[in-house]
Write a structure and sequence with these properties.
The chain is α+β, with helices and mostly antiparallel strands and 311 residues long. The protein folds into two domains: 11-100 and 203-278, FAD/NAD(P)-binding domain (3-Layer(bba) Sandwich); 106-196, Alpha-Beta Complex (Polyamine Oxidase, Chain A, domain 2). The chain has eight helices and 14 strands. The strands form four sheets. The chain has a six-stranded antiparallel β-sheet with strand order 8-9-10-7-11-14. It has a four-stranded mixed β-sheet with strand order 3-2-1-5, with no helix packed on it. Strand 1 (45-49) and strand 2 (56-60) form a beta hairpin. Helix 3 (92-100) crosses helix 7 (216-223). The longest helix has 25 residues, at 245-269. It is elongated and about 75 Å long.
Amino acid sequence: MLSLQKWDQDDPYEFDGEYCVIREGYGHLINALASGLDIRLNYKVDSVDYRDGKSIRITTSKGNFDADAVIVTLPLGVLKQNSVQFLPSLPTDKQNAIAKLGFGLLNKLILFFPKAFWKTDSDYVGYTSQTRGEFYLFINMMRVVGAPVLVIMIAGQAAHTVEGLSGEEVVSKALGVLKTIYGNVVPNPTRAVITRWGSDPFTLGSFSYLSVGSTGDDYDVLARPVHERIFFAGEATIRHHPSTVSGAYMSGVRAAYELAKSCAYREAHNTRPSPVVASPYDHTKAQNITRVSSPTSNANSEDEPVDISGL
């Protein structure tokens, strides 16, 4: 349940300017940022063990990795599910922040048509559905990709409901709405793709929000490093820009800076490691940083192609 008192706490920090769409998709941006890095895909992370104070052991489905420091970018939904075990458990205040923050769901249905039947000079078409959140916004992609494509938004409980339907059922319901708006001029799509973020075990939702009982402080707590060796990034760790791609990116830059600063301090002071249980700060000398990615949703897993031959 959304907090009426705090839901808009980040509004004063919104960026100026118009929204934009990356024509090639976010994958193009991610690939550019990842260029030259050693990134292991499809390594399912099971645990992060930082008990001995000397190194951190990451246990994965394809073997173990030892590192002096790690950056955790697990989605809030995965943290809530405790899919990855932390040894010892994360600090109580961080566990409380994870529990209090809400994690919402927004799915998209992308329909490709043989021709446009809508006004292509408008970016959006809104629709008041009888079912709240169901196919409430149609985004015209014609001016972006140069093709007759509509991206249809599904939010709230409706987003959960469609995850229990087949792709064909979702497409059929969306076409019914379009025909209500435009009449029988609506052709069958040539292709359809649907996201199911809530069912994906590596996301379990789409974005964080302030639920009743939570405040912006919870974002700060979630962002706080643990023993100066476990750092956190992601859209749920940036108080002023949560629930956004830009916020997620900035949080990653922040976590990288924090890690580099911590490593530099330990290098300069040539400090020796101490057991995690003995001190809130562990000044081990961090040299190795292993980048291990769980099989998070990518173009092949997050988007489900829909068989529309029976329409």
